Amino acid sequence: MLNTSAHQTVPRTILVVEDEPDLATAIAQRITAKGWTARVASDGASAVRAASQLKPDLIIMDIMLPVMDGIEATKRIVAERPVPVLMLTARDAESDKVMGLGAGADDYMTKPFSPRELIARCEALLRRVERATIIAKNLENEKVLDFGSLVIDPRQRLVTLKGEQVHLTPTEFDLLATLARKPQSVFKREKLLEEVWDWPDASGTRTVDSHVKALRHKLGSDMIRTAHGVGYAFEPPQDDARNER
Ligand code: CA
């Protein structure tokens, strides 16, 4: 069986949230051509409703939307059910990306983009989620990573910080778990891209940086150390004296 063709036959439902009708139609056509099912919502509030009814496999979400913007809509959607979200930003603004990733998006593309690349990114995202699900199933015996105030449960894909559950996107979780399995080891950004994102080349190392930013925002800035010019390392919280194991 060829890996490259395996995903073309799997039925997928993609929710496209975009208020520009021409662009929404163009994206939906690409998705349909791929053999997937496309549904379009043109504002944030209907996106939240559609996500809840359709339970899509992936959401393409524009940020600038009427009624409710894409950031707020994404927050509400992923709070209800984890789903990969690819965000569309109008500008190449770092703040938009960080906000989008903080809200629960897994990836982003800046307009204007090539529809071909958009589909390729969707495929990569779906592949990652699928792989993570398979890995989770194979991890029945994987130990909970207990760092005292921070506990990472790979099987349930749950993270708690000081007893409170932290909502991480699938990508954020994979990034954190990858780093935390080898505390204090520096991972090159290229290595992380390969392991977490399944990207064979190093063209997206800034994606790693953005997700690290989002993780630091949720967990505190000390948890992930920057090794300048190299990559990142997980630093266990300094409070685990009572939880030795
Ligand atoms: Ca828009």
Q: Strand order across the biggest sheet?
A: 2-1-3-4-5
CATH topology annotation of the largest domain: Rossmann fold
For the record, the count of structural domains works out to 2
Estimate percent helicity. 40-55%
Provide a quick synopsis of the model:
It contains 9 helices and 12 strands. By secondary structure, it is of the alpha/beta class. The protein folds into 2 domains: 2-135, Rossmann fold (3-Layer(aba) Sandwich), CATH 3.40.50.2300; 140-244, Winged helix-like DNA-binding domain superfamily/Winged helix DNA-binding domain (Arc Repressor Mutant, subunit A), CATH 1.10.10.10.
Could you characterize what this model shows?
By secondary structure, the protein is α/β, with parallel strands linked by helices. It has two domains: about 1-135, Response regulator (Rossmann fold), CATH 3.40.50.2300; about 140-245, Arc Repressor Mutant, subunit A, CATH 1.10.10.10. The chain is built from nine helices and twelve strands. It has helices at about 5, 20-35, 45-55, 70-80, 95-105, 115-140, 170-180, 190-195, 205-220, and strands spanning about 15, 35-40, 60, 85-90, 105-110, 145, 150-155, 160, 165, 185-190, 225, 230-235. The strands form three sheets. It has a five-stranded parallel beta sheet, sandwiched between helices. A four-stranded antiparallel beta sheet has the order 6-7-8-9, covered by helices on one side. The longest helix is centred in the middle third of the chain and has 24 residues, at about 115-140.
Secondary structure blueprint with pairings:
Elements: H1 3-6, E1 13-17, H2 21-33, E2 37-41, H3 44-54, E3 58-62, H4 70-80, E4 85-89, H5 94-103, E5 107-110, H6 115-138, E6 145-146, E7 150-153, E8 158-161, E9 164-166, H7 170-180, E10 187-188, H8 189-197, H9 205-219, E11 224-227, E12 231-234
Helix pairs in contact: 2-6, 3-4, 5-9, 7-8, 7-9, 8-9
